[in-house]
Each structure stands twice: as C-alpha cells, then as structure tokens.
Amino acid sequence: MPNSCYLAPLQANITIGSIACALASALEDCPIKSVFESPFAEPSKWLFEPQKCAQELVNSLYTKQTTIFSGRFTNVPAGLDICGIHADVARHLRAPIILVIDAQNLDSQGASSAAHAMAVQIEKQGGTPIASILLNASFTFESSTSHSPVIVTPNTEISAKQSELLAHALENTPTPGIPPLTYQAELTKRAKSSLRKIVLPEPEDDRVLKAAAQVLALEAAEIVIIGEESQISASAKRLDIDLSAAEIVNPRDKEKLARYRSRLAELRAKKGVTEEKAEEMLKDSAYFATMMIENGDADGMVSGACHTTANTIRPALQIIKTKPGVSTVSGAFLMLFSDHIDLYADCAVSINPNATQLADIAISSAKTASDFGVEPKVALISYSTGDSGAGETVDKVKEATQIAKDKCPDLAIDGPLQFDAAVDAQVASKKRPNSPVAGKANVFVFNHLDVGNCVYKAAQRTADAVAVGPVLQGLNKPVNDLSRGALVEDIVNTIIITAIQAQD
Questions:
Q1: Total domain count for the chain?
Q2: From CA 45, how far away is CA 89, in angstroms rounded?
Q3: Residue 297 region by backbone torsions, left for phi larger than 0, else alpha for psi between -120 and 50, else beta
Q4: Is 119 helix (H, G, I), strand (E, B) or coil?
Q5: 139-169 b/e with 16+ CB inside 10 Å = b?
Q6: pLDDT digits (tens, 9 = 90+) for 323-332
Q7: 355-369 burial, b if ≥16 CB within 10 A, otherwise e?
Q8: pLDDT, tens digit, for every residue of 472-502?
C-alpha cells in the first residue's frame, strides 16, 4: 500500500476539504497537508522553476507517514497543463492520485468521459490515478473505467461508504516508483538520523569544497577536511561558501602523525614498513585519511576527485581490509531512473573477475541494494540466457551463479541472463520461465569491467538516469571513490551514501 494519497482537483477553487477529512478518517486519521502553499504559491510556479519546486517539495513535504495531500489551487494561467503539474507533484510525493472534477455543468456522459480522459492524461505524464470524484453532479450513475472507481456526489462531500471505497482502492494500489529527487531526499533523512564523520582528503578541488558546504548545510554528515586551514579558508572565501562547521585537520599535526605513524608501521610490519617509512606514506593524504578511519577519528572517506581509483583503494585494502568472508572489493552504482532504482556492478574496480570473485560481487551487490531500500533480485548478465549459449564467459557466469546460490540459498539470483530477459517479463516468459529474477531484475552484475562501465554510462547519458556512486563494496569501513569527472551533486550524493554506510 502507498504511504500517501494526492487529491487532484482539475479546476480552480474546488472545495475538497470535506473529502480530504473523510478520506483521512477512513485511513485512521492520517494528517492532511496542502501542497500549493508557500513556497508553492500556485501551480504556475512549476511552469517556470520545475526543478527548484520539486526539490523544495520533497524537502518540505515528502514523508513516509501516510498522508492526504491536497492539491487545491485558486487560479491558474490559461494554457497551463494542470494535469501535468498534478502528475509531477504526486510522483515526487510517491502518492497515487484521486481526481476531483466539478461536474456542475456536465451531463453523465460528459462527466464520465472527462474522468476517463483526465485519468489517461495524468497516467501518460507519470502519475498513478486510482479513482475519480465528480462533485456537484445533477445525476447519479455507476461507472467503471480503467481507473475505477468513479464516485458521484450532488455536493462537495462524500459518504462514509464512498470514503471507504476510496481507501480500499488506495490499499490495493502498488506504491508508485520513486523519482531520483525523492530517493535522494530519503537518503539525506537517513544520513541525518545518526550523523557520521566523513573525511575528505582533496581540498585542492573546488568541487569537493562546494560539496562539503552543501552536506554541512543539509546537516547530513560531519565533515573533516585534510589540509592547511588558511588555504581552505581562502578557498571558501573565494567560492563564497560556508565551511565554518567543518573540522580542518593539518596533515602535519604532530600528535596525529605520531599515532598514525606508529599504528601504520604496526599494521604493515610484515611488509617491511618501519615508522620512518610509515611517516613517508602518510604524506599521501589518502593514507592519512584512511588512518583517521582506522584510529576512530573518522567514520568513512570520499576521495577520487583528484586521486586515481587505485590511490583511493590501495590504502583501504592495506589498512581497513575487507569484511570477513569477502575477498573481492567491487564498485557499484545506484542507478536512479524516473520511476525505479537499479544497482549495477562491477562498474569501477574488478576488470575481469573470475567465477569466485563474480559470486562475491553478486552477494555484495545484493547487500548494498538491500541497505539502500532495494529488495534485491540479482541477474548475472551475459550474451546467453540459461543454457542457450556456450563460451568461456558464459561458463564463468554459470559457475558464479551456482557459487552465489550455495553461499546464499535465500537470495533471489539467476544467471546467465541476457539483459532483455532480465528486465522484460514477456521476453523472460519465453527465454527463462519460472525464474525468480528474469523479467524483474533490479541488481545487474556484469562479467567484465568493460561491460559494466559502458552500460552504466550509457544509461546515465541516454536514459537520464542519475548514477550515485561508485559505492565500494566489501570493505570493513566505508571508503568511496569518485569519478574525476564528478559533478558537485555526485560528490554530495557519495558523501551521503558513505555516511549511511558508516551507520552499520
């Protein structure tokens, strides 16, 4: 059942307060919230600043608590697509839509046609219509469309029986997919629920400093920046950002250097690392930041805006190491599409994993998906589905799938699967019937880095997917790598992801 419901009047100044109250009562007295109030004065604002309005909406109104959202408005400029605005608002609130139409000047046929046509229009624009209410009707009829029920009332109120009918329709409606902005808002709230300290070792990059300022403003994490305080302050002034709440740690701090040098030498003694060698290694800010995590002075690290992936991962592998039972570190992306979330792996680390490593990646990816609210259905992708093909990579995927099944018998996993068989139910019914994954996969494990990296970037650039990551999987403590082409928004998302990982 969805968390909320959105009442969408299709004309201005329709009175829907009584309907909202009746429906709220039927849903055990859930709260009622008006959408088009400050800062959303009227729907027309969405015409000129849709992205800003959507961000303000999810920040201020989105909730997992069952809520009735009132979309009542007082005026709208001629030509404004009110159906499209209602659809967009409700989509970001993850709320199915109940259409409200003033039928005062309509006959029964015209009203029924209008209800159906508007529902179809809203559905085409990404909304989830589940019912229609015809107010001030001079007629009565029983009607059913593809978006039933249609409720008719001679005034602006609905009966207890009608409100129960609407509540029943809501209860039997799947929760709408989650748009990227809404998902990101959910992640931010999770991060804020238990703040963690994330260290950033690249103050020389303006994108990192801007992202740090945004995270601090969101109060989504505590931030540690490694560098000279005077230089960071000068950069903050130049960029016109506020980093006053950040902890600035000088990498030449004598007390920290002494502790980290001694501990690093102890950890790497078998590799011949002396304290002198350890001190030299700590001149690398990635090593210094990793030692902060090892010593409990930070909970996670985000790096890679300037450093290579190897430079970020190497200290983590040497110092933090992998989780018990995990031998393979991999990189996954949360792919935020307009109506759903997938996870792709490995897109960043393992070039050509063997069957055992591929199984590790699949299991780690399932856990990552679960940690971030996606019930994993894992598809190991190949150019062949089931036993339809043969070849070295197909055999590797078959073996990896079996290893993963043996290690995690309760995991929904299948492979090899072609991508179309993994995502399309009709194709799956022909190529892989009775599979627990085919046709409904949401975790995609690729057998080579070439494939994973190309697929995620193709989805990002051609399907407008938001790629959050890479999320490094398998480490004892969260260390996440950035693309050197990362946008400020990407870095913000990665910091928030890292903070959530550190809550475990």
A1: 3
A2: 12
A3: alpha
A4: helix
A5: eeeebebebbbbbbbeebebeeebbbbbbeb
A6: 888 889 999 9
A7: bebbbbbbbbbbbbb
A8: 999 999 999 888 888 898 899 999 999 999 9
- Dihedral of the alpha carbons of 351, 356, 362, 366, in degrees to the nearest 10: -130
* 98, 157: one domain: yes
Model pLDDT, residue 170: 84
Residue-range definition of the domain harbouring residue 255: 177-321+483-504
CA angle 400, 404, 407 (to 5 degrees): 140
Q: What phi-psi label fits residue 434: left (phi over 0), alpha (psi between -120 and 50 degrees) or beta?
A: left
What's the CA gap between 372 and 443, in Å, rounded? Answer: 12
Among residues 284, 300, 281, 302, the alpha carbon closest in space to that of 292 is found at 300
Query: Band of the pLDDT at 394, cuts 50, 70, 90?
Result: very high
Strand 32-34: give its sheet, edge to edge. Answer: 32-34, 67-70, 4-9, 97-102, 129-135, 150-152
299 shares a domain with 246:
yes
Apex 280 CA angle, 277 and 286, nearest 5: 115
DSSP state for residue 270 in the 8-state scheme: G
Helices (H), 153-307: 160-171, 180-193, 206-218, 229-239, 254-267, 275-281, 285-294
Q: Is the dihedral of CA 156, 159, 162, 163 positive or negative?
A: positive
Q: What is the spatial distance between Cα 353 and Cα 396, in angstroms, rounded to a whole number?
A: 9
Tokens of 405: 């099944």
Cα separation, 360 vs 467, whole angstroms: 22
One domain, residues 138 and 26: yes
With 0-12 / 13-18 / 19 or more C-beta atoms within 10 angstroms meaning exposed / middle / buried, residue 291 is: buried
Over 80: is that where the pLDDT of 3 sits? no
Distance of CA 165 to the CA centre of its chain: 33
Structure confidence by residue, pLDDT tens digits, 68-115: 999 988 877 667 888 899 999 999 999 999 999 999 988 888 888 888
Residue owning tokens 């990296």 = 453
Helix pair 108-124, 82-92: axis angle to 10 deg: 50
What angle do helix axes 254-267 and 285-294 make, rounded to 10 degrees? 80
Name all contacts of 104-110 with Cβ < 8 Å and 24+ positions apart: 104/135, 104/136, 104/137, 104/138, 106/134, 106/137, 107/139, 108/137, 108/139, 108/141
Q: How far apart are the first and last CA of the chain?
A: 28
| pLDDT > 60? residue 117 | yes
List the CATH number of the domain containing 13.
3.40.50
What's the CA gap between 163 and 156, in Å, rounded? 13
Strand partners, 6: 69, 97
Asked if pLDDT for residue 1 goes beyond 70, the answer is no
